[in-house]
Amino acid sequence: MSGALLSCAGLTVDYALETAGLESMGQRAVDDLSFDIAPGEALGLVGESGCGKTTVALAIMRYLGRNGRISAGTISFEGRDLGQLAPRELRQLRGGRIAMVYQDPHSSLNPVMTIGQQLMEVPLLHRTRRRAAARELAVRALSEVELPDPEGMMARYPHQLSGGQQQRAVIAMALIAEPALLIMDEPTTGLDVTVEASVLALVDRLRRRHGTSVLFISHNLGAVGRLCDRVGVLYAGRLVELGPLSQVFANPRHPYTRGLLACVPSLADERRGRLLTPIAGTLTERARQAIGCAFADRCAHAVEGLCTSQPIALEAIEGEPEHVTRCVLAERLPAFAVEGEKGPASEARPAAEPVTEPLLAARGLGKRYALGGGRGALEALRGIDLDLERGGTLAIVGESGSGKSTFARIVIGLTEASEGELSFKGKDIAHLAIGRRRRDLRQRLQMIFQNPDSTLNPSHSVGYALERTIGRLHGIGRTQSRADARRLLQLVQLPADYAERLPEELSGGQRQRVAIARALAAAPDIVVADEPVSALDVSVHAAIANLLKELQARHALSLVFISHDIALVRYMADHVALFYRGRLVEFGPAEAVFAPPYHPYTQMLLASVPDPSTPGQRAAVREAGTAVSQEIGRGCPFAARCPWRIDRLCDRVDPPVLEPSDSHRIACHLDLIDLPRTIERTA
């Protein structure tokens, strides 16, 4: 591209692997990659873990480490070959003309230095020697990323900021030297949907204001669709598709791109009830070494010989000259449409015995944590009323700190409620900690955690973990426990011989399947899944979601599904409970909650959801610009952020509960007719 700011030409990156201290055969992480980024352009790079996205960023920054090297090709920035720069020139470039924002802000923020000290280091290194001028630039940067009280923020330490505020501070640090190129590596992973939307909107405004180019690396296709102008798809280190965002997402011509898009749930009603379509198989070392298409061993359209016998070049799509793909069958593939098999959610469930009461019911449930030092208590939950029907899925939705995990811990018995009731099969368990629960009760309530690594002993095989759980719960012998463990692995679609493997020999998605198998070992009535897929690739994400639905339909499981992924909740849930600051603001059947009228908080969440089916769409969330004075524990918890609030009422008086339809409850002072009825978005 003439006039490109950044140009990668034939970039090839290899990592040397070591075995028993001896250097062995290397692994190719990036293979003959070429792309350009124009001044002011935002380019997205997407693909599964291991496809080479982060390696590309590290190669540009020359941060590959001792075992990584650029084996071929060049990276040119502003006309200079980065591979030919001396160390001193590289130091001036990094943080100056090129800046990087990492996935975890903790890796960029020093916990023993104030935010101000860390921000001032950048201009002192790249722009000025005067501390007063550096401080002025730091305050201005914090203001530009829209952090409250920039002067006060300068004196705070990283632990005194929320996750979203930390990420904004890191973005301020990256932009303070006014770089020409900003590289962002999974910068919104783990953030709440509203925080993600605000961070993406912020980056979009800043890059348009300053003409900054952005390389945005993510497995979140919706986030890419919200920010980027063009998108490149990597597989096994190779670029398999590249083009304008609207063309690639609306008319994907490589089977791998189609597979990624088919994995993503949508808020659209017509996709409710279908099974997501995960990509079959996994990325293998054999694929990296393939002469032909690296995706051939996972592709349903592959033709032996045609796709596998010779290298495949990037070719332009007819009628879309800027849209290229590495597929010999690109022009023969049918028109793209997201379709899937009908899943358990859309099938008629077998007739069950009449249920006179919910399996799980919360009434006035509350939890307070003493702060110590005479500072009173933190109200984590207050007045929670909700039900879970037998065989149903109750989704708990809300931002970080809303009380979702506290509710889960009370259900499982890891903490006790301070007030109210939590009835399981008619028995109140709200104040019954796990140590005082009978074995049969502990068996009936199981949990799947967000990170399976925290629940699997790295020193023990997968089979041992399952056998020990089965034997302890059911009191059966080792032979039967071993047989049952292998049956459970097959139930979660893993080969029985995986029982001999250690956790480190499994992928993240496979470890999560083992965690699900261990939860099922107890034959539970209720499984609490706390963010079970948030850290997984989009295809693994889809496979686990499908698995949970299939197991639920097959075994009549009831699920408490906790997530901040609203589209996934729409796919999974029968009923939805929206928590905000420990209060229940809306509860009801999923069809009712995701249709108007909305609680203002629900409307804000839905407007924040990125959706790759509508690329280029930006959130236009109405949110009050100034906070109101509100006594803790009084009034509507959302009053300080609500653009429809009624001053001196919403912030002082608890809202009444409105009932737009049967079983649908909204806690709000607005009349039903005045509640929000549209999801405000802009393109």
The assigned CATH architecture of the largest domain is: 3-Layer(aba) Sandwich
| Rg over CA atoms | 26 Å
- Name the CATH homologous superfamily of the largest domain: P-loop containing nucleotide triphosphate hydrolases
Strand content bin: 15-25%
CATH topology category name of the largest domain? Rossmann fold
Compute the number of structural domains.
Answer: 4
Model regions low in confidence, pLDDT < 50 over at least 5 residues: 20-24, 343-355, 624-631
Helix count from the secondary structure assignment: 20
Strand order of the largest sheet: 8-9-10-5-11-12-14-13
Report helical residue fraction. Answer: 25-40%
The SS-based structural class is alpha/beta
- Give the overall shape, derived from the CA principal axes: globular
Distance between the termini: 27 Å
Oligomeric category: single chain
User: Main β-sheet: number of strands, strand sense, barrel status?
Assistant: 8 strands, mixed
